[in-house]
Amino acid sequence: MTKTVIIGGSHAAIAAAAKLRQLNADMEIVIISEEGFLPYQRPPLSKAYMAGVMPIERLCLKPAQWFEKQRIGLQLNAQVTSIDPDKKQLQLASGGWQSYDKLLLATGATARCLPADIGGHLPNVRTMRNLSDANWLIDNMQADKNLIVIGGGYIGLEAAAEAAKKGLNVTIIEAADRILKRVACAETSDEFRRLHQQKNVRILENTQLLKIIEENGIACDVRLSSGEVIALDFIVVGIGVTANVELAQNAGIKTLNGIIVDEYCRTSHADIYAAGDCVSLPFDQQPTRLESVQNAHDQGAIAAANILGNEIVYNPKPWFWSDQFEIKLQIAGLNRGYDAVIVKHGKREGAVSHYYFAQQKLIAVDSLNDPATYAMVRKALEANVVIEQEMVMLADFDIREKVKTLMAG
Ligand SMILES: Cc1cc2nc3c(=O)[nH]c(=O)nc-3n(C[C@H](O)[C@H](O)[C@H](O)COP(=O)(O)OP(=O)(O)OC[C@H]3O[C@@H](n4cnc5c(N)ncnc54)[C@H](O)[C@@H]3O)c2cc1C
Asked: Which domain holds residue 213?
């Protein structure tokens, strides 16, 4: 009986294990996860779980019985420390080891921390990546406390929104000239800035954190490039992630800023595959890292099918979402390289979508409370239907009608 071992116990790992079992009733499947919890969904950590409206049981990707029923060995609190690709063995931190026939690296990513020399090591300076981080933050989110959020990306903004809803005084510090600059157009930034400001979240753009000032071993103020000093109870750091590549690197597997895979999710080493946030994959002929549930799930499942001898190309169809206050943002496509944005209001009150174009062709959309537009654009992009910029510019443009017509023809 062949054995596949999966390192990592999150979205990519569970999608892969489920697909392996679906396609092969006999294979031995083992998941090794360094976390101590049953595999869980990460997105709600800064949304419904943080808001207290999603209980822990619903956070889990699968109930404990699922692993038993599917005969998937789940090792929790188990960290893999090295891979020997020649012997096909893994070393564990506990001193034990595991053999494998096929290996899937689903090691994900780690939140970037602030350097210790500006105070990033202090106990009330936290990142937001895992359940322990979320639980710590929830325990500390009491009304009237002062929260500083470093970084105006999606995770920072979501944490800020949840904290503001609980009555904390929230300030977001963003070094770039606008929040969401790395991931969205100015129109989307403007919508979220307006929203947060309406809810009394203070947003300081073009502002650098110079120093976290410490008192009795905890952070108590931040000093900013503007000269301002702000008092705080705790800090959430949301300045991006780095792919967990060290295991692969030390085993001689090729990495760049992620574990390099081909379109079949194969690494540079025979019988070793990788999927999810840890990966650098070819997308539009460019090495690309995608940090989303869509990517982890779809790539994990395709890696699993290919582990079983198929040759299925993984061609990502990105989608993403973010919930902040009363806005649900849904993104279809990848806006990389966009050169134009068109704003269109949807049929529902308050619904708006920002269409991204590259060389006159639609490549992505940010839909704010506009699920109908999101769904149609996603459908069109998944079907490789070309939507020209000039079509969208027309005053009577109707995405639903257009996609229907184009798909029929
Ligand atoms: C707060 C938050 C909100 C998010 N919101 C959204 C959203 O709204 N929409 C969206 O699409 N995406 C969102 N994301 C991103 C999404 O959660 C990730 O893209 C997804 O979790 C990636 O899954 P993964 O399985 O590749 O890796 P990860 O989820 O990073 O999991 C990797 C796992 O491997 C473990 N591991 C690493 N090394 C070892 C080792 N040596 N031994 C054993 N175990 C190891 C890690 O501890 C971890 O448990 C969010 C992420 C966060 C943190």
From this structure: 116-237
